[in-house]
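Throughout our pipeline, every protein is held as a single compact record rather than as scattered files. This encoding replaces a full spatial description with a residue-level series of whole-number codes. The remainder of this section carries one protein's record, kept here as part of the documentation.
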Amino acid sequence: MPLVAVVVLLTACGDSGPADRMLQQPEDLKRGRNLFVGSCMGYCHSMQDAKKDIPYLFDCEWLHGGSDDQIFTTITNGVEGTKMLGVGNKLPEGSTDTWRLVAFLKSERRPC
């Protein structure tokens, strides 16, 4: 029985995703913030909950999924039928920059 517990524990502690690793890297978070301010805030989003028709991204309510992969997909592909356009692979450092945005959003999200 103890062997099962060890296997379960090792599985639960598996490799973290790109955003989790970037949370530990101040330069990645700084770049994620700069990308957010220069791109996302430049068009729609805000770091203040302004109660407007654009979702506030630093609370616990995520309309299109709040997991890292779902946020990455939303940033990349956008959301059909909304103002959210996907950036695809257009950020200067491609998907790495998208993961930096995800990490930044996670770093600033208030606890639920």
